[in-house]
User: Which sequence fits this backbone?
């Protein structure tokens, strides 16, 4: 085209208007530069739907540490602190401590089939509501029996959330952000734990338990009025029109792109039902992909229990007391909890950059070094306490660095891995199995640490868990596949050939 027309200077720019002679639908599809096809658009509403679950996760974090500040009040003779008429006995304290874990196992086992029938959104709404009601009843009661039941039902909802929340995130997220969002939905848990350490000793029993109920109640209201049912469940229940409306809200996409995603969901569900015709435990046992997926996910969750994070977190204060730091053990425990919050938050960024497999591999493998060095400090101190007086910072720094690295790789990333490697047909049942088995492993780890410390010493306990981190790193390297950006069918193909390589 000649730009030097109508007497214009050859160096003078002129406005040229192009009129397309191509069909309008083609032009719209190929010239919509502000919104290209197959772009990884992020919407605020999608993240709100997923991350609002952090409210209930705050209640879970408060409940994980509930027994620590509340036991002091219930054992007190001061009626202003103790809502009961008399201090509780040691047996009653043990029953209070066991009520929540027992409920967790029950909730994980009973929710699998319910989630398949009614969908993850409804199950989470009911679970959040029961959690809020349970803690409200505990707050305004003066009966130890009510405390048992309240903590048991709260534990039941925590077990149900552990099973259903990964399903909800997996069904509402996209392939490119599924792992990142899976990590982000757990950030509220350590925040709740920090909150418990900060305020648990300074507020009344009624006030603290009321605070525990508030985040779960807000989460229930969010899911009831603001969060939609997942598009996968709507397609599964033959309601593609509703699924299209939901996708229009949680995806910043054109109508054509939404239609393509509906077709992709239908295709993935059809392939899942064709290749995994059986559901539940039968489907896991008879299907090769499901078995391999369960091995991968369960191994990652057991790694969290056996790497030492859960055990050391439970006994942070006595371990810091043994280190001989000038700071109080309670202050150091709060610092460690804050670092865990930062670690939880960093996990999603690491997963987005390196993927789930590499994040776990780097974090777990590197965490064995500060743990081994901390063990060396306590070994030298046991031989000659005077030689380590100038290095009291070493165990504090070493344990905090270990927990920062290890939590980044084992606390939230296994949730993302579980979301990736388990198909919809068996996910609820497999999640329940994983929660129960890993819960038992975690209970044994926490239970055995004081006995091991008494029998072989703290240094050897640290070295033992350091060796477990190395073994866990080897498991990740040889077994856990890289699922970054892969679709459901592509991940299933990788799992089918997992142990054939």
Assistant:
């Amino acid at each position: 085209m000649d730009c030097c027309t109508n007497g214009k200077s050859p160096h003078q720019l002129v406005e040229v208007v192009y009129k397309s002679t191509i069909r309008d639908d083609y032009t719209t599809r190929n010239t919509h530069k502000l919104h290209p096809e197959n772009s990884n658009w992020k919407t605020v509403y999608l993240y709100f739907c997923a991350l609002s679950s952090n409210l209930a996760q705050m209640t879970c974090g408060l409940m994980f540490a509930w027994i620590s500040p509340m036991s002091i009040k219930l054992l007190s003779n001061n009626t202003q602190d103790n809502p009961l008429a008399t201090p509780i006995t040691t047996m009653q304290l043990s029953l209070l401590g066991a009520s929540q874990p027992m409920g967790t196992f029950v909730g994980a086992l009973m929710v699998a089939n319910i989630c398949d029938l009614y969908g993850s959104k409804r199950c989470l709404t009911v679970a959040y509501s029961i959690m809020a009601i349970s803690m409200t009843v505990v707050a305004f009661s003066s009966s130890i029996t009510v405390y048992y039941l309240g903590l048991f039902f709260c534990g039941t909802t925590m077990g149900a959330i552990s099973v259903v929340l990964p399903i909800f995130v997996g069904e509402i997220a996209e392939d490119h952000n599924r792992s990142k969002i899976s990590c982000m939905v757990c950030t509220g848990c350590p925040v709740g734990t920090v909150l418990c350490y900060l305020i648990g000793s300074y507020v009344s029993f009624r006030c603290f338990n009321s605070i525990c109920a508030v985040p779960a109640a807000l989460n229930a209201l969010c899911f009831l009025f603001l969060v939609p049912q997942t598009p996968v469940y709507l397609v599964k229940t033959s309601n593609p029109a509703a699924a299209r409306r939901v996708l229009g809200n949680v995806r910043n996409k054109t109508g054509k792109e939404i239609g393509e995603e509906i077709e992709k969901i239908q295709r993935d569900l059809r392939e899942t039902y064709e290749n995994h015709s059986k559901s539940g435990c039968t489907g896991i046992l008879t299907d090769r992909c499901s078995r391999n997926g369960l091995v991968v996910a369960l191994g990652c969750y057991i790694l969290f229990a056996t790497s030492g994070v859960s055990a050391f977190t439970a006994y942070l204060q006595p371990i810091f007391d043994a280190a001989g730091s000038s700071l109080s053990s309670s202050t150091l425990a709060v610092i460690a909890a804050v670092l865990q919050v930062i670690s939880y938050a960093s996990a999603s960024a690491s997963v987005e950059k390196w993927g789930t497999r590499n994040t776990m591999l780097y974090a777990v493998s590197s965490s064995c070094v500060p743990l081994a060095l901390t063990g060396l400090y306590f070994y030298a101190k046991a031989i000659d306490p005077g030689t380590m007086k100038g290095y009291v910072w070493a165990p504090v720094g070493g344990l905090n660095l270990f927990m920062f690295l290890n939590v980044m790789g084992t606390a939230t990333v296994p949730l993302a891995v579980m979301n990736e490697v388990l198909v919809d047909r068996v996910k609820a049942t497999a999640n329940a199995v994983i929660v129960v088995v890993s819960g038992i492993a975690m209970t044994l780890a926490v239970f055995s640490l004081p006995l091991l410390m008494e029998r072989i010493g703290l240094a050897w306990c640290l070295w033992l868990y350091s060796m477990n981190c190395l073994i866990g790193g080897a498991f990740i390297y040889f077994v856990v596949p890289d699922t970054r950006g892969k679709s459901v069918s592509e991940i299933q193909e990788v799992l089918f050939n997992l142990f054939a390589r």
